[in-house]
Design a protein that fits this description.
Elements (H helix, E strand, L loop, with lengths): L16 E7 L2 E7 L11 H9 L10 E4 L5 H9 L5 E5 L2 H13 L5 E5 L10 E6 L7 H9 L5 E12 L4 H12 L3 E6 L2 E7 L3
Parallel strand pairs: 3-4, 3-6, 4-5, 6-7
Antiparallel strand pairs: 1-2, 7-9, 8-9
Helix pairs in contact: 1-2, 4-5
Length: 201
């Protein structure tokens, strides 16, 4: 059985690749490897989420990139907004090592990169949580990433989720409405939905 990118410790043979990609007007260098999500380029969903995220509408405070992979979401936002502290978390140890390498490659210091399964090792509260959830990890994991976000947002903070319509956008939208009593479709692009919900204490 082929291993999945959401496994803790991928055993697949290393095949490090390095390439450049422009996000939020900054050209970033990325290293990727076997055993991580979207190893050949920044996936389209993450690009849509990065471009749709509006930093000006969230309160002061830190931002969480939940399920960061090798780092395109968190690192692009950290580079664009150096006054914000970004926490990046993932369960995949190989992805976390790559994220740390990519932070160094791009001289990004306003990030903390940690191992956590969903929110298991996350105790802070954030002004925003951004996630491109691992659909193949199953509905239970994706639902926890959304519904438990309410415990990790400051008053006025928001969660931003990218998900394809065919992979469950309607059900995630419904869950966000039930959890936060509000949900907004910020953007739609080629079947990808950017969903946002605000947390009010």
């Amino acid at each position: 059985m082929a291993e999945q990118y959401f496994e803790t410790n991928p055993n697949s043979e290393h095949n490090i690749k390095e390439w450049k990609f422009t996000l939020l007007d900054n050209e970033l260098k990325f290293q990727s490897d076997n055993g991580v999500f979207s190893k050949n380029t920044v996936d389209f969903g993450s690009r849509v989420l990065i471009s749709a995220f509006d930093e000006s509408v969230i309160p002061e405070g830190e931002i969480l990139d939940l399920g960061c992979g090798y780092g395109p979401i968190g690192l692009s936002i950290a580079k664009k907004f150096p006054d914000r502290q970004i926490t990046m978390s993932d369960v995949n140890e190989r992805a976390l090592e790559l994220a740390k390498t990519n932070a160094e490659l791009n001289d990004i210091e306003n990030v903390e990169i940690i191992e956590s399964s969903v929110y298991d090792k996350i105790s802070k509260k954030f002004a925003a949580i951004l996630t491109n959830p691992p659909i193949r990890a199953g509905k239970e994991i994706v639902s926890a990433m959304v519904s438990d976000a309410s415990k990790h947002l400051i008053d006025g903070g928001s969660i931003w989720v990218v998900i394809q319509k065919k992979q469950g956008a309607p059900s995630v939208k419904k869950l966000m409405q039930e959890t936060f009593n509000n949900v907004e479709v910020v953007k739609k692009d080629k079947g990808y939905y950017i969903l946002k919900a605000n947390y009010e204490n």
